[in-house]
Design goal:
- Two copies of one chain form a homodimer.
- Chain A is an alpha+beta fold.
- Chain A has a single domain, classed as Trna Endonuclease, Chain: A, domain 1, CATH 3.40.1350.
- Helix content of chain A is about 30%, strand content about 30%.
- Chain A has helices at about 25-40, 110-120, 140-150, 160-165, 180-190, and strands at about 40-45, 50-55, 65-70, 80-85, 85-95, 100, 125-130, 135-140, 155, 165.
- In chain A, strands 1-4-5-7-8-10 form a six-stranded mixed β-sheet, with helices on both faces. A two-stranded antiparallel sheet of chain A has the order 2-3. In chain A, strands 6-9 form a two-stranded antiparallel ribbon.
Chain lengths: ~190, ~190
């Protein structure tokens, strides 16, 4: 895999990220996706958590009730969908660690999935929030995977995100307006 | 929505569909997707069934056990992913009815979802299998939605699928080789 030529995305002002809203990153993304959907901008959904169902009861006159089930490891990322005709795929994670993002937060097969999407011409990225810093980054999957494959460390320093990520702006209607960053990335690609 | 100009896809020979394998359509598609994935042709997955979790037990030294949960209505289709850089989205249904496919088999919001995908430039379709006829059709979502919106009937006759659908060939490795049909559709689009 080639590393994008010397691209260093200087972190933009994160003035827009200063509100402490107590919402999880996932909730913020789901809300943003609802806005995109309502405005016919994109159709991006969170995949349901995969569950292994073992036993289901069928009580009379009521809905089937699952009485034994277990969480399964997801084989793909959490979010995917369509934007401008293109396939979008990303994983979202938040961390309470202020200085580093541990690789253990992301499953190996999720990274492999992002790589497959890239190789098939899709738009793949990660959205990573540092809760204590109150900042949310979008990271191109290619950059993240390059780092992942070329380090012997078990985590990524915060500064790496500042140097290589795009900070995502916050607004009330679109708490994580990541498609604004995707537009910027698509423009940069076209300029090359 | 415009109806594609007089397009009538004459049903091709379904000689390849004659094996009775006792596998469900969903299993066949999942197996085909595994082939596409292994061959790096496409990355298309079935979405997990959405489940409303009510109660989880955490037994000592074992995995979290879900002890009360219910099935939720899916808000999108079952399958989506990427092929040739494009966003692919489809719903798969089989019926034991030999003469008609009832609209009740598909949720209204799934049809709305397919329409959204079309409007955003994605490739959207349905895969419908008539079990008793041993034939599996791919139907462009645009054709299906047009019919759905312009009929007062509660089902689609089998003959409509023969006139408007593409029969999907079977082979052992790719039980439902639907991307072969997608290629054909993409070619037809380019010719226009």
């Amino acid at each position: 895999m080639k590393y994008p030529n010397g691209k260093k995305n200087i972190q933009t002002s994160n003035k827009t990220n200063t509100s402490n809203r107590g919402m999880s990153l996932e909730q913020d993304i789901v809300q943003t996706n609802l806005y995109y959907l309502a405005e016919k901008i994109a159709c991006i959904h969170k995949k349901p958590t995969p569950i292994q169902i073992v036993k289901v009861d069928y009580p009379k006159r009521s809905a089937a009730k699952i009485v034994e089930a277990y969480f399964k490891l997801p084989s793909t990322t959490d979010f995917n969908g369509i934007y401008k005709g293109k396939y979008i795929d990303f994983e979202a994670k938040e961390t309470n660690n202020s200085t580093r993002f541990p690789f253990s937060s992301i499953h190996k097969h999720q990274i492999e999935h992002l790589e497959r999407v890239l190789n098939l011409g899709g738009i793949a990225f990660l959205i990573i929030r540092f809760n204590n810093k109150n900042i949310t980054f979008l990271i191109n999957a290619s950059d993240f995977i390059y780092y992942y494959k070329n380090t012997d460390k078990s985590s990524v320093p915060y500064q790496w995100f500042c140097d290589n990520g795009y900070s995502i702006s916050y607004n009330y209607i679109k708490p994580v307006d990541y498609l604004k960053v995707v537009d910027q990335i698509l423009e940069e690609k076209n300029e090359k």
